[in-house]
């Protein structure tokens, strides 16, 4: 995979891809997949931004088949409605890229269902979305789920006693927990797919450090994240480069289920796709299993019964 770029993406004609997030990495994923012939569904919560993203993709790839669907990952109701719309019009999905996220709000905020915003959006939202779309994915051709983690996962830990940070909220540790949870989910999903014969490959990826709206939207004019982005621009690779590990995971024939891909240079900060180092915490299968069960209880959704009635969890 040395030096892998979007020019190495195999033809994607006849394949349907769902990408969450309309800007930054999600936009770059959608552009590359559309250029390769995939039918791309760009999912996000802001219809105006979604329409703008679709228009830009069509300018860059005039032959692209691309559409926008509203999806708010901070709302279990929105996730259910999104999955129902897709299920009513499509028989299958071949690629799901769980990309969208929020980063380090200064104060604890909650989702529509009472989850801490970062854990609820970055992880639980994608957990519920993947479960809802599992029947369509199982109908796909060599289907893959790619879930975005982060270098921040290295510093993460899973606090099963306080997943929603009710007892103590610190922005960056909670973000790190959410991204470690995403990585553990990707690995656990692949194990369960193999054990249950679902036929879906689950792969994790991270973008290194990339220039995206996620950092620019970090709180505070003088936050560490914004300061780094302003004063240390050489650390930040373009979003198109940061999207490569997820695109490799989603399309490369040599990408393996249960693997983790990231950039290959500067301790995975930038570069081309390569196998990434999985943090020790993410290898704890007992914790991964307990996190999975907690997630099913919190969301009211089971992967064995993905259309289970939703449960609203009080804040």
CATH top level class name: Alpha Beta
Number of strands: 8
Strand content: 5-15%
Main pleated sheet? 8 strands, mixed
Helix content: 40-55%
State the domain count: 1
Summed up, the helix count is 10
Given helix and strand content, the structural type is alpha/beta
- The topology string of helices and strands comes to EHEHEHEHEHEHHHHEEH
> Over the alpha carbons, how many angstroms does the gyration radius reach?
18 Å
Shape: globular
- Give the overall average pLDDT: 91
CATH superfamily: NAD(P)-binding Rossmann-like Domain
Q: First CA to last CA: what distance?
A: 45 Å
In the CATH hierarchy, what is the architecture at level 2?
Answer: 3-Layer(aba) Sandwich
* Low-confidence region ranges: 220-231, 307-315
* CATH topology assignment: Rossmann fold
In the sheet with the most strands, the strands line up as 3-2-1-4-5-6-7-8
Entry summary:
With 315 residues, the chain is an alpha/beta fold.
Would you mind describing this structure in some detail?
- It is a single chain.
- By secondary structure, this protein is of the alpha/beta class.
- The protein has a single domain, classed as NAD(P)-binding Rossmann-like Domain (Rossmann fold).
- Helix content is 40%, strand content 14%.
- The protein has ten helices and eight strands.
- It has helices at 24-35, 47-60, 76-89, 117-138, 171-196, 213-216, 224-231, 239-242, 244-251, 285-299, and strands at 16-20, 39-44, 65-70, 95-98, 144-148, 201-205, 260-265, 270-275.
- Strands 3-2-1-4-5-6-7-8 form an eight-stranded mixed β-sheet, with helices on both faces.
- Helix 3 (76-89) packs parallel to helix 4, helix 4 runs parallel beside helix 5 (171-196) and helix 5 crosses helix 10 (285-299).
- The longest helix is centred in the middle third of the chain and has 26 residues, at 171-196.
- It is globular.
- Mean pLDDT is 91; it is low at 220-231 and 307-315.
């Amino acid at each position: 995979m040395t030096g892998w770029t979007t020019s190495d993406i195999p033809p994607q004609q006849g394949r349907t891809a769902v990408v969450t997030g309309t800007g930054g990495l999600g936009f770059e994923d959608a552009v590359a997949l559309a250029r390769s012939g995939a039918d791309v569904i760009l999912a996000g919560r802001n219809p105006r931004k979604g329409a703008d993203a679709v228009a830009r993709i069509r300018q860059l790839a005039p032959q692209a088949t691309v559409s926008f669907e509203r999806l708010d990952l901070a709302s279990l109701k929105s996730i259910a409605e999104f999955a129902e719309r897709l299920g009513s019009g499509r028989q299958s999905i071949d690629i799901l890229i769980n990309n969208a996220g929020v980063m380090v709000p200064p104060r604890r905020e909650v989702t529509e269902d009472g989850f801490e915003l970062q854990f609820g959006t970055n992880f639980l939202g994608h957990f519920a979305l993947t479960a809802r779309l599992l029947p369509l994915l199982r109908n796909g051709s060599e289907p893959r789920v790619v879930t975005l983690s982060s270098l921040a996962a290295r510093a993460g830990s899973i606090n099963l006693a306080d997943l929603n940070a009710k007892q103590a909220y610190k922005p960056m540790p909670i973000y790190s927990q959410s991204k470690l949870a995403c990585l553990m989910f990707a690995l656990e999903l692949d194990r369960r797919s193999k054990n249950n014969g679902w036929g879906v490959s689950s792969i994790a990826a991270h973008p290194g450090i990339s220039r995206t709206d996620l950092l620019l939207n970090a709180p505070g004019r003088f936050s560490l994240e914004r300061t780094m982005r302003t004063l240390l621009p050489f650390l930040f690779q373009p979003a198109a480069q940061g999207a490569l590990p997820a695109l490799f995971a989603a399309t490369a024939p040599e990408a393996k289920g249960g693997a983790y891909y990231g950039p290959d240079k500067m301790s995975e900060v930038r570069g081309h796709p390569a196998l990434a180092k999985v943090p020790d915490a993410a290898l704890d299968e007992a914790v991964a299993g307990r996190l999975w069960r907690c997630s099913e209880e919190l969301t009211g959704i089971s992967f064995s019964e993905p259309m289970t009635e939703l449960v609203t969890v009080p804040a």
